[in-house]
Design a protein that fits this description.
Elements lengths: L8 H9 L8 E5 L3 H7 L4 H22 L3 E8 L7 H24 L3 E5 L7 H14 L6 E8 L1 H17 L10 H6 L11 E4 L18 E4 L9 H12 L9
Parallel strand pairs: 1-2, 1-5, 2-4, 3-4, 5-6
Helix pairs in contact: 1-8, 2-3, 3-4, 4-5
Bound molecules: farnesyl diphosphate (FPP).
């Protein structure tokens, strides 16, 4: 079934090298390259997104098995509305299918499923299914899967500023109360630690309006692999590299 896979022998070498005591707590991923994966095969872009969902299933399972606590996937950005209507519809349909098909298995495996972003702008069915998924899974103690949907970091920061300014205006807080924690607590990611590791496949070296406040001290890992081809072995490689970096957080 979904979670109880046998380890692929090709993966065991790198998996054995990973220090299980130093698994990153929060991994964020910019899932990219679905369109180019499809184009390379002469397929419609929708097939690339569909193949991308298969990768999501694999990577969620692998993350959960590794003991990663938070996995944040960039599924739909505030800028993605600029895509052709058909493609937006495909992405929303895939989201709906994914939630309906996988939620029971995710729940059984102790996964919390939640969204970050302004989901009020998504189709009604998606909002309802996301609410249902969160209500069902919110008390689980395993992996927390954050789906970034209609998410944009600038939008998130702008909303936080407006909230905080309103609190100051009402006299509930003073300017001296504004610190990093207050800002973090006004973001969609409230209560979630900042990502330790950010992965972007597909050969692009951009952040694309993702978690701009939260990635101040995050380690980045890039790869040329398109998202539909992003097998667990690449996650292992990213974690192995991460474990061999020296994180100083501005210190020495
Ligand atoms: C980027 O590839 C991918 C996206 C914008 C969407 C990612 C969405 C999914 C994998 C499926 C739907 C989500 C869920 C949660 C089920 P791209 O289209 O920008 O690729 P390209 O740069 O090669 O064109």
């Amino acid at each position: 079934m979904f979670f109880k896979n046998k380890s692929d022998p090709a993966n065991t070498d790198i998996l054995n090298k990973i220090d299980k005591e130093k698994i990153p707590k929060h991994v964020a991923i910019i899932m990219d390259g679905n369109g180019r994966w499809a184009k390379k095969r002469g397929l419609p872009r929708a097939m690339g997104h569909r193949a991308g969902v298969e990768t999501i299933r694999e990577i969620v399972k692998t993350s959960s098995n590794l003991g990663i606590k938070y996995l944040t996937l960039y599924a739909f950005s505030t800028e993605n509305w600029k895509r052709p209507k058909d493609e937006v519809n495909t992405l929303m349909t895939l989201l709906l299918e994914f939630l309906k098909k996988e939620i029971d298995e995710l729940h059984k495996n102790n996964v919390v499923v939640r969204a970050i972003g302004d989901i009020s702008q998504l189709p009604r069915q998606c909002i309802d299914e996301l609410d249902r998924a969160y209500t069902l899974t919110k008390n689980n103690k395993g992996l927390c899967l954050n789906l970034a949907l209609n998410y944009g970091a600038r939008d998130e920061i702008k909303k936080a500023i407006i909230n905080i300014a309103n609190q100051v205006k009402k006299g509930n807080i003073g300017l001296e109360d504004i610190d990093d924690k207050l800002i973090s607590d006004n973001l969609y990611t409230k209560g979630i630690p900042d990502p330790d590791l950010l992965i972007r496949p597909s050969g692009e070296y951009r952040i694309s309006n993702y978690l701009l406040w939260q990635i101040a001290y995050t380690e980045f890992w890039f790869s040329d692999i398109y998202w539909p081809d992003f097998k667990p072995i690449y996650l292992y490689k990213a974690i192995y590299d991460y474990q061999n970096r020296s994180r100083r957080f501005g210190g020495v």
